[in-house]
Write a structure and sequence with these properties.
Layout: H1 6-15, H2 23-35, H3 38-54, E1 56-57, E2 64-65, H4 71-74, E3 79-86, H5 89-98, E4 103-107, H6 125-131, E5 139-142, H7 148-161, E6 167-170, H8 186-194, E7 197-198
Parallel strand pairs: 3-4, 3-5, 5-6
Antiparallel strand pairs: 1-2, 6-7
Length: 199
């Protein structure tokens, strides 16, 4: 690749740092951008800058948002009494695509993993406990992955909220052990939400 000028090499190097993008794909993308009309390249650059400057976390659920409150938390048609707890925004997106849930979310930003040094202070679990007001919340659905860390996180939440008078449920079968929510098909996700069970 040394035959390319420095600006192309720099772009190839930057693009190859993206997940799932190897050197060959990065080279193809860089050459595509080079040959694209200037206004398209400028628009792409502007979109990346806007993304970095405008997207933040929702002050309530910690979803990605361009405002203080995300679209779901701001939506008056959503059931504010029903909170679905997920690990990350991609898990929330997977549930949203299923159209099986009309409540709101709480995004933990990870799971408990003592082996990796991740404890309750390292994720947004105490923020969930602050939201768990029985006067405002009727049910909390725990939708973490069904791996060791996800189950440990569920156990911790159940222990802390067991006397809260809030119904605590777990998404039902259909999500395989060790399954990643973002890769679950919509029908499976819909059935898992419909058949959730008490903890």
């Amino acid at each position: 690749m040394k035959h390319y000028p420095e600006p192309i090499l720099k772009l190839i190097n930057s693009l190859s740092k993206l997940p799932g993008i190897g050197k060959k794909t990065a080279e193809r993308l860089a050459l595509h951008i080079l040959h694209a009309p200037s206004h398209e390249a400028a628009a792409l650059a502007a979109d990346i800058i806007d993304l970095k400057s405008q997207v933040r976390l929702c002050s309530i659920c910690f979803a990605l948002s361009d405002k203080d409150k995300c679209r779901i938390c701001s939506d008056p048609t959503r059931d504010q009494h029903l909170i679905c707890v997920v690990e990350n925004p991609t898990d929330m997106a997977a549930i949203e695509k299923s159209n099986a849930f009309n409540g709101v979310y709480h995004i933990l930003g990870g799971v408990l993993s003592p082996m990796d040094g991740i404890g309750p202070d390292d994720i947004r679990i105490f923020e969930l406990f602050r939201r768990a007001d029985p006067g405002k919340v009727k049910e909390i659905i725990l939708a973490t992955k069904t791996n060791v860390e996800g189950e440990a996180t569920v156990s911790f939440i159940l222990e802390k909220l067991k006397n809260s008078n809030i119904k605590l449920t777990r998404i039902a079968s259909g999500i395989p052990m060790g399954g990643d929510l973002q890769y679950i098909d919509q029908l499976t996700m819909q059935k898992a939400m419909e058949k959730r069970y008490g903890c």
